[in-house]
């Protein structure tokens, strides 16, 4: 690192050296600071371990601070040629007249936005801020950035895909709506990482895959762009921000990987999300950025019924840890109470009722998920949830369209909101959740698996260890990045002139 820093002539090489240094510093600082965090009350319980583990929380603060210090020290390097090279005072003055003030403003506003989110994340870790208050804050934190964007780039039009051009024309100017869109990108990037969380290493793991995808995308552009092209500046800018982020994230992941010795806290989630939003906005590739967020977009859409309280949302939606098997299983949320009569009814009529309920319309799909999820022993004992192979496989037992529609009609005794009912039914039909119904009528939903991508992976692939679940998420994220690259660099030719 010392050799890189002393011999480097271009800012990118210096940035690489700083990134390695930042990574090593993060890796070595975390164990040294862990005890201080615990003493200050910044600690959390690992929900998915046999023994109750209390470990330091908010270690994203260490990564965030080291990142910010690295970037502060790096600020002069991209502007070095304006400071050096001439001892002639007049020439130097002339040079300063061409100084790219707006580039410096971009850099500073980006750091201000990231710093604000590190601060907000830490406040959230300490104060547990309510969702309704913290939800819009990333958009507010991005105002300095949007202001510089307005002065410098000011581009508010989008290029219309070729097939739609006969109707909409070549460009659409979104005006102020473009700024609203960018504010939403900042909100989405920060919160989407925070809600795909809760198992060792998953937040940093997914962020690292996204960051590496952004860096590779930048390098592809830098390789292919002709010298002097404006895209070079913006993609270099993006790399300056992403490489140190990769450095500190790697340093943090070593300690956060299963079995975690530290938690990263909301601080890291917000820090990571805002860093991505900043490069997406200022390097002007927010659409490509969103392609790298395909799993997060899916997780957000899947979570929406719980986030917007159409169905209950418990404090933690992380998968359930099974102490007996040491494996993770889909966690469930209670939708309605199971009354005594229900349980009695279920016990006494178990044998006779099971057959008819299993082949009841609309039940077959959910039963199939349970079987593929490798239901828990306790679940398997719930005979009304047993999979019905006959109902799934045989055409004669398939429900008719009329009966399926009847099944969608809200059940009058259910405590669910009408909108919540339709959501559950739709998600169940799509195989995205498993719903358990009351034993008596087989129609009143009692509980369902929480609506997150982590629970969905477990529902489809069966129980697995916490470490394998994190690896699965990273593999999904990696595959989605490959799809994003194919869309961005191959399929794009069909819809845009490139
Ligand atoms: C978000 C999720 C919540 C999830 C939580 C896990 C939504 C709306 N909220 O809430 O469902 O349960 O993140 O981070 O989707 N923890 C572990 N192991 C880990 C990481 C965290 O057990 O590897 C636990 C620890 O007890 C830690 C706590 O999660 O203290 C942190 O939760 P926090 O970040 O405060 O939750 P939220 O972001 O509010
Ligand atoms: Mg969190």
Automatic annotation (TrEMBL):
- Top-level class of the enzyme under EC nomenclature: transferase
Q: Which EC numbers characterise this protein's activity in its record?
A: 2.7.8.15
Tell me which PANTHER family the record gives: UDP-N-ACETYLGLUCOSAMINE--DOLICHYL-PHOSPHATE N-ACETYLGLUCOSAMINEPHOSPHOTRANSFERASE
- Bias category Polar residues: which stretches? 346-361, 386-398
Q: Which reaction does it catalyse?
A: a di-trans,poly-cis-dolichyl phosphate + UDP-N-acetyl-alpha-D-glucosamine = an N-acetyl-alpha-D-glucosaminyl-diphospho-di-trans,poly-cis-dolichol + UMP
Known InterPro entries for this protein?
Glycosyl_transferase_4, GPT
What is the name of the protein in this document?
UDP-N-acetylglucosamine--dolichyl-phosphate N-acetylglucosaminephosphotransferase
Q: Where in the cell is it found?
A: Endoplasmic reticulum membrane
- What are the record keywords, sorted? Endoplasmic reticulum, Glycosyltransferase, Magnesium, Membrane, Metal-binding, Transferase, Transmembrane, Transmembrane helix
* Family to which the UniProt record says this protein belongs: Belongs to the glycosyltransferase 4 family.
Pfam families per the record? Answer: Glycos_transf_4 (PF00953)
A GO cellular component annotation in the UniProt record: endoplasmic reticulum membrane
Q: In which pathway does it act?
A: Protein modification; protein glycosylation
* Domain of life per record: Eukaryota
Q: What does this protein do?
A: UDP-N-acetylglucosamine--dolichyl-phosphate N-acetylglucosaminephosphotransferase that operates in the biosynthetic pathway of dolichol-linked oligosaccharides, the glycan precursors employed in protein asparagine (N)-glycosylation. The assembly of dolichol-linked oligosaccharides begins on the cytosolic side of the endoplasmic reticulum membrane and finishes in its lumen. The sequential addition of sugars to dolichol pyrophosphate produces dolichol-linked oligosaccharides containing fourteen sugars, including two GlcNAcs, nine mannoses and three glucoses.
Cofactor(s) recorded in Swiss-Prot or TrEMBL: Mg(2+)
Native source organism of the sequence: Linnemannia gamsii
| UniProt region (Disordered), positions on chain | 346-365, 377-398
Transmembrane portions of the chain = 16-38, 59-79, 139-164, 176-196, 208-225, 237-255, 267-285, 291-311
**One annotated GO molecular function:** UDP-N-acetylglucosamine-dolichyl-phosphate N-acetylglucosaminephosphotransferase activity
GO annotation, biological process: dolichol-linked oligosaccharide biosynthetic process
Q: Provide the membrane topology annotation.
A: Multi-pass membrane protein
